Amino acid sequence: MENHVVLTACIDELQSLRYTPAGLPALDLRLVHESSQVEAGSPRKVSAAVKAVAFGALAERLARQAPGSIWTFQGFLATPRNSKTVVLHIQDVQQN
């Protein structure tokens, strides 16, 4: 099975940079996506708010970005322990 996500979205919220118990930089974000998609042959406006997390140098890089900036995020989805929500684990970004 494959678990790969590519999403163009703006950074809506950035939490403070934190560190894992192993000392790895980590950053929690909220991303917002809006677009027009075709579903069942008809155009549809869609929007989504997505929780995301980045680690290491990527977390440090994203922590310096302005809310509202638009990026293309690549990564995978996972559900944290004791949670029912899905989180995008960011592995790569490109600014749009």
Task: Write up this protein.
- The chain has a five-stranded mixed beta barrel with strand order 1-3-4-6-5.
- The termini are far apart.
- The protein has a single domain (5-95), classed as Nucleic acid-binding proteins (OB fold (Dihydrolipoamide Acetyltransferase, E2P), Beta Barrel), CATH 2.40.50.
- It contains one helix and six strands, in the order ββββαββ.
- With 96 residues, the protein is mainly β.
- The longest helix has 8 residues, at 56-63.
- The protein is 8% helix and 61% strand.
- It has one helix at 56-63; strands at 5-14, 18-19, 25-39, 42-55, 70-78, 87-95.
Overall average residue pLDDT: 97
Order of helices and strands: EEEEHEE
SSE class: mainly beta
Number of helices: 1
* Shape, per Cα inertia axes: globular
What percentage of the residues does DSSP assign to strands (E)?
A: over 45%
Give the N-terminus to C-terminus distance in angstroms: 29 Å
CATH class call: Mainly Beta
CATH architecture tag? Beta Barrel
Taking strands numbered 1, 2, ... along the chain, how are they ordered across the largest sheet? 1-3-4-6-5
The main pleated sheet reads as:
5 strands, mixed, barrel
Q: What is the CATH superfamily? A: Nucleic acid-binding proteins
Quickly describe the structure.
The chain has 96 residues and is mainly beta.
List keywords for this structure.
96 residues, mainly beta, OB fold (Dihydrolipoamide Acetyltransferase, E2P), 5-stranded mixed β-barrel, 6 strands, 61% strand, globular, DNA-binding, Primosome_PriB/ssb
Secondary structure elements and pairings:
Layout: E1 5-14, E2 18-19, E3 25-39, E4 42-55, H1 56-63, E5 70-78, E6 87-95
Parallel strand pairs: 4-6
Antiparallel strand pairs: 1-3, 1-5, 2-3, 3-4, 5-6
